[in-house]
Each structure stands twice: as C-alpha cells, then as structure tokens.
Specification:
- With about 280 residues, the protein is of the alpha+beta class.
- It contains 9 helices and 9 strands.
- The strands form 2 sheets. Strands 3, 4, 5, 6, 7 and 9 form a 6-stranded mixed beta sheet that branches. A 3-stranded antiparallel beta sheet has the order 1-2-8.
- A hairpin with a 4-residue loop joins strand 4 and strand 5.
- The longest helix has 16 residues, at about 200-215.
Length: about 280
C-alpha cells in the first residue's frame, strides 16, 4: 500500500481528517465540475462544510476521516502522485502555530505556553487543543492554522498537547486589526462618474473575485508575478466603478498570503497595479 495512504488511514482511524498533497505541499486542483468556480463556490476559501466531490477537491475541505473515501478508486490517482499527507487541524479539534524559522521558534519558547511540538524543515509546529480562525503572518515567521486550513503531517511530535492559550488568540486578533486592506490605505476609490457600477449583477463581480482567488491559489511558480498580474486584472475590470469593497480586497490578500506572500508584498503589488492603471 502507498506509504502516504497508509499514514492517512492511521490518522483517519484516530479521528484526524486527512488529504493528500502534491509535491511541494500544494493541494490537488479542483475537479472538472468545480474548476474555475463552476460549482458556484469554493469551500476551501469561504464555506465551512466538507467537500462533497468524489475526487480530491477544494483543498482543506477535502480532508476526511472516512476510510472508504480515502481508499476509493477516485482518490487512487491522487495518492499515487502525492508527495505528503496533510490534515485539517480544526477538524481534529486542534490549532497549529507554524514557526517557520529559528527566530520564530525562539520567540515562541519565550512567549507561548509549552505544548506538543513537531520539527519541520525550517522550524517547528506547536500544536494546541482547541480551534480558532486561521491567520497568516501574525508576526515574522509565524502562521496560525486551524479552521479552513491544512497543515502538513510531519509525525506525532513530542510533549503534551495543552489547551489553546489566550496569547495565540491575541496574535490572530492583532493580525486582523493590522493587515486588513483598509489599514494600508488601499481601499479602491469610486469612479469619477459617481460610483455607479457598470456591471449588471453582483454575480459578475463575485465570479471575477472567485476566479482571481483560484488563479492565485493554483499558481505553481512565479507567485509574486501571478499575484501582481491578478491584482492588475481585477482592478482593470472592477477598479473604476467603485464596486470593489475592502472585503473583496481582503479575499485577494488572503489568497496571496496563503501562497506565502507577506502583507507588505500584497500591499505593494496592489499599489503598483493601481499606479499602472492610474487609479
């Protein structure tokens, strides 16, 4: 049996929802039915429910403890191509504080409550009991993975898992208040003509944002360039009529940060795209 599938089955039997990852820690792309938002939504970005597609689809929302699904013929090709196993922390009642370098690990040891730790390629995962919102770049080298996120399985680790401390909640709250698009002055202005939207229905804008999220999420290389060009395309289509809101821009930033872009890179890319278009 495939070693990644065997690991996944062991975790699933312990109540940990799992999914395969491609080489490079990327989730498998949406199936044909769901590609480019054709299914009408993307559970990995917004909706809380599990993916209902027969094949591996929708990122974290594909994670499951159903061994019949994991061993089904529709998942066989994914396990054959998989480079790693991931799990949905919140689905197992957990939160992972992802420490991406030695400085972040040092900070955690000085600041956070000791808990179960797992060594990673560049740092450590600190695993707490309890769930919360996920957040990227809450401080240099630190991400929080819990709800609507996945973490790579790197083994059981060492130590005893303790309840999620308030200090971790506070990190996410601080990130939310400091990296919102509005706080960086990137709110898109209304058009000179009074801000009347030239689009016929809100669905047109929603589909545009959804497709932009997917384009960023599915980037396999040149992420910086993809993010900039995607921002440029969104602003070209929607930047002059005043229909973009902070919520729309926040979704684009979230997709970019999920690919490893920093809030600063997102802000710069957005500003450069606006300048290019004269907005």
């Amino acid at each position: 049996m495939n070693k990644h599938l065997q690991t996944a089955l062991t975790l699933a039997e312990a109540g940990v929802p799992v999914l395969p990852l491609r080489q490079g820690k990327e989730p498998f792309a949406n199936c044909r039915t769901c590609a480019r938002c054709a299914c009408g939504g993307r559970p990995n970005m917004r909706n809380p429910g599990p993916c209902q597609c027969p094949a591996v689809c929708h990122g974290w929302a594909a994670a499951t403890t159903d061994t019949d699904v994991l061993t089904s013929p529709s998942w066989a090709a994914a396990w054959h191509e998989a480079g790693a196993v991931a799990y949905h922390p919140a689905g197992a009642g957990l939160t992972v504080v992802d420490l991406d370098n030695a400085d972040a690990v040092t900070w955690a040891r000085q600041t956070l409550l000791a808990t179960r730790t797992v060594a990673t390629t560049r740092g450590e995962h600190w695993i707490y009991r309890g769930t919360m919102q996920s957040a990227n770049a809450v401080r240099p080298g630190v991400d929080i993975k819990s709800r609507m996120a996945y973490a790579r399985w790197r083994g059981p680790g060492t130590g005893t898992t303790v309840p999620l401390p308030n200090a971790v909640h506070a990190l996410a709250a601080k990130e939310s208040s400091t990296v919102r698009p509005a706080s960086h002055g990137i709110t898109v202005p209304a058009s000179v003509g009074g801000g009347a939207c030239r689009h016929r229905t809100p669905a047109y804008l929603e589909r545009g944002i959804c497709m932009a999220e997917q384009r960023i999420t599915e980037a396999r290389s040149a992420v910086h360039t993809t993010v900039y060009r995607t921002f440029l395309a969104v602003l070209s289509a929607h930047g002059g009529c005043g229909c973009l809101t902070d919520a729309h821009v926040a979704r684009l930033f979230a997709a970019a940060q999920a690919k490893g872009e920093s809030p600063r890179h997102c802000t710069d890319a957005w500003a450069n795209a606006r300048t290019r278009l004269g907005l």
